[in-house]
Prior knowledge:
The complex is a heterodimer of chains A (498) and B (560). In chain A, helix 2 (27-53) packs across helix 4, helix 7 (181-207) packs across helix 10 and helix 14 runs antiparallel to helix 15. Chain A is 47% helix and 10% strand. Chain A has 498 residues and is of the alpha+beta class. The radius of gyration of chain A is 24 Å and the shape is globular. In chain A, strands 3-2-1-4-5 form a 5-stranded antiparallel β-sheet. In chain A, strands 9-8-7-6-10 form a 5-stranded antiparallel β-sheet, with helices on one face. Chain A contains 18 helices and 10 strands. Chain B has 560 residues and is mainly alpha-helical. Helix content of chain B is 62%, strand content 5%. Chain B has 28 helices and 5 strands. Chain B has helices at 19-38, 44-63, 94-100, 114-129, 137-144, 177-183, 204-219, 223-236, 240-259, 263-279, 285-299, 301-314, 320-328, 335-341, 348-364, 366-373, 378-391, 397-406, 409-422, 425-431, 440-453, 459-467, 469-472, 476-490, 495-503, 514-527, 530-538, 545-559; strands spanning 66-71, 75-78, 81-85, 103-109, 149-153. In chain B, strand 1 (66-71) and strand 2 (75-78) form a beta hairpin. The longest helix of chain B has 20 residues, at 19-38. Chain B is elongated, with a radius of gyration of 41 Å. The chains are: A alpha+beta (498), B mainly alpha (560). Chains A and B meet through helix 7, helix 8, helix 11, helix 14 and helix 15 of A and strand 1, helix 5, helix 6, helix 7 and helix 8 of B.
Amino acid sequence: MTATPLAPPQGALPTGSAPADDSLDTRGDEAFVRRAGRGVVGAMYGALRAIKLYPLENQAVQNALAELEATAATFLAREPDLELRGGGEYLFVNGVRLRLELDNYASFTRILALFAAHRVGALFVGASVVRRDWLVLLSTMQELPTADAEDPVGDLQERLQVAGVTAIELAPMPRSAADGPETHKAAAKRTYAHGVAAARDVITSVRMGRAAGIRRLKRAVQSIVDQLLSDESSLVGLTTLRDFDEYTFSHCVNVCIFSISLGKRLGLTKLQLYDLGMGALLHDIGKSRLPSEVINKTTALTPAEWALIAAHPWLGMLAMFNLRGQQDLPYRSMLIAYEHHMKRDLSGYPRVLRPRSLMLYSRIVAVVDSFDAATSRRSYQTTPWTPAEVLREMRDNPQRGLDPVIVKAFINVLGIFPVGTVVILDTFELGIVHAPNPNADELARPLVRIISDESANLIYPGEIVDLSAVGPAGAPLRTIVQTVDPELYGIRVSDYFV
Amino acid sequence: MTVAAAHLTHVDSDPAGAVAPVAEMLRAFGRALRAHALYRHDNPAYLRSVEQAVAAFDAVWEVTEEVVLSVRENELHLGDAVVHADAERTSDGLAWMLYKDGVRELVLQAGLHRDELLSLIDTLHQVRRASPDDDDLVTMLWERDLPHVRHRCVDAEPPHSDAMQPPDAGSRSFGSIAEMAATGTASQIVRMEEFESTLYFLDQAEIEYLRSTLAAEYQTDVRSSVIDALLDTFEHQRSPRVRDEIAAAVDTLLVQALVAAAFGAAAHLLTEAAASANRAPEIGETHRDRLLGLTSRLSEPNVLTQLVQAIDDASDTFDLGQAETLLQTLDVAALQTLLRLVPTVERERVRQAIDRAIVRIAGSHTQALVRLIAHEDAAVSLGAIRHAALLRTPAAVGGLTQRLTTGDLQHQQQAAEALAAIGSPGSLQALERVVDAEDRALRLSAYRAFAQHRYRAVLPRIEGLIRGREARERDLTEKMALFEAYGTLCGDGGIPYLDGVLNARGFLGRRPDAEVRACAAVALGRIRSPAAHAVLARASEDRDVVVRTAVTRALRGATA
């Protein structure tokens, strides 16, 4: 049994941390907490952005703080206090879980990221809170603790006390949730390996003509969903593995990871992410029914061979009729397999006779599949495209037939410099993009792991720096100059994510 | 689940004092789990067990905010203490139930109250009943997404991770970064302005587009889309082996759609399968028959019985319109079964839907309907007679006449009604046979049919009846029907007789009884001629209120 880490500190505000069932009399109250809680979270995010972009005396900052003060006051007029608790991928307000949706993902993601960075488990706000308290809290939270900070939440609380803020108190994360980046990396590695193993298991079974079990695959997808909801960058980083020998399996897992990541950004529910992930993981299962010499051919395909390749979508759909461990058929996965090479105008393959509209999930997987395939080294593609080239092509070439809204969202998820991109900085350091910047306005300035000094000496594992960090003069400390093909220099990007 | 309290061990360090309340919580949880399986959920015993479990959980949240249970084969541990032990490893044991599906740690957090507790109990109950093809506990827990329940599980086989080793930590150098930059190709230089339009997330219209698309897709039955995909492939791929596989998949889909009460998808499948059967290039007879035979299979008695029962059992939970669409695809082989099932259906709207399906099938297969009139199963033959009436099928007259004369009384009565509804010369001629039948309902049907269809050929027999004594002794309804028929058929030729009944006085001024005179008034009203009107007018001041009322009504009808 763990300690009781989420209890408010001694002398804290009267507890509002009881869950919805206890503290709320009716469903109407719960609806109020949910609605007003979303308002507070949105206003916190607005204030965070304003504080980051403008000087404190700027009217935009004052307006944002006034908005936050007003929304909090509305909440506190009906509730004795306000508890904002981070729980992995969720935010709870006074015990009521707020759902991540398309129109609030940015605020949720940002606030959860700040909570995680400071190891904050919960934030308690009393009725006496004033605008200045919010200003102190949010400005302080913007400054991320150093990697070696032992008690970030304690430090943050101390700074609030020094500034005279008494209406806001903090509680640390539960021990399990406060696991450091190494734990996240280990979990991500385990999840990725399970995904590859499950994909290998199913694909090999289909290839051998055996009835493949789907139970392990389900668990793999569930793990990927959980991992992406709690710590996206560790798992996305592993998509850089691109193991040539395991391409078929790792491609399936990569497409699954990217699709879920994109789906998460689009506000899909956990179960919808699961549906999407299952389909993404199985999207190429039809290839397991093709001769391996065709799949692995390094020279141009003959028309007959091409016809075989073009059969893999419907072969995949048929293969799913024979999977074991499912009460009902995986219809959405079947459609993803069938439709992922169709273009928006229904050209592409397979050809259709009956009118149909491409399922959204198929359109997502089509985009992600194109990206991962083009940026990977495969039997017939010895020189992969750079991520930026692929994203540009997908966005600008209508002949690709991809959904432009999905492409736009995908670029936003990956950033202009996707995770794993090797970049040269204007400091003449070499870096690997570690994660998109958590601030959605800073997509061109990701978090980068420095892997060499300015003299080109390899550093391992290297420090992670935020390219949006500015020096005393207000200018960015580092800026990306260009990308580098890691193959040319023998850099194994995945080493830095394992 | 068996809790062996004696096995509980206590540890020296239990600063939060949680071991005892957690053990009690698990005992209460076990009782609630058993009650969940044993009782209806409004049973007081069940409700009491749930309330006790809720109270036990709340007691735990008084002393701690998180309970981390280690799962062993037969035991649950809280730290070093055993807080739950099953006497033996059975599928009912809580520990084994968790352990066998790979759960090695179960974390329960403060905030887990009644609703979530019930959901957890239900999840474990589902696991106990799960078949090998059902989801396991891990997947069920994951899908339930209980906010205050977490678990850690293991997979049976550790995956390979050869490709995931950290790099050689030995020192390396890349040469000059400046040189690397200089050798970069144009494609490696990313210009920010190229991505400006994508720097910001989706605009409101794009968000709305995605949201509405997703919502629409989750409201749509995607089976139809899979069916289209399969049948498109069937038509494109000419390999018999591929077509075999697709035909089998279509079979599976049909069953799955029926199991899931996705009747719209099943109807779509039957329609599109028939389309593919009729237009797929180079289709062999076997494949054509297999696709076209899907409808016949659904029309088979045992299959159709299941379908109708499923529709009747659960018609509140799905769109009956979709079920009706499916019923409308059935072929003539379904007719007999549908007729047999109609009386067994509980819900009126389902019965109506089946009736409409029967009407469609029988309307285009009248001979099949006619044959079923003679069926030995009374439900079938009566249903066939009823639908022959609904459809007014002249071809059924022969069969109905047979039933009119040789069947049991129920068949005779329904046959008479059907013949009356058909109203053809042949059916009316058949009804002449029951003009003086012993059964009143048969006679009534006949009289009314003669009147309705103005069947003059029967006039002499009707006239004979009303002039006789026997008819006058029948009840008012039958007398009225008989006189109405007479009035409808006799024309002015019948006026003198009717005038006599209504207005004339007999010996010592005596008159027929009032009911007969009222019937005569009704008959005169049916003649609708000036002469009949005049006769009625003379009786308008009759002292008998029954007669006067009938006359008044007849006059209104006569002038209408």
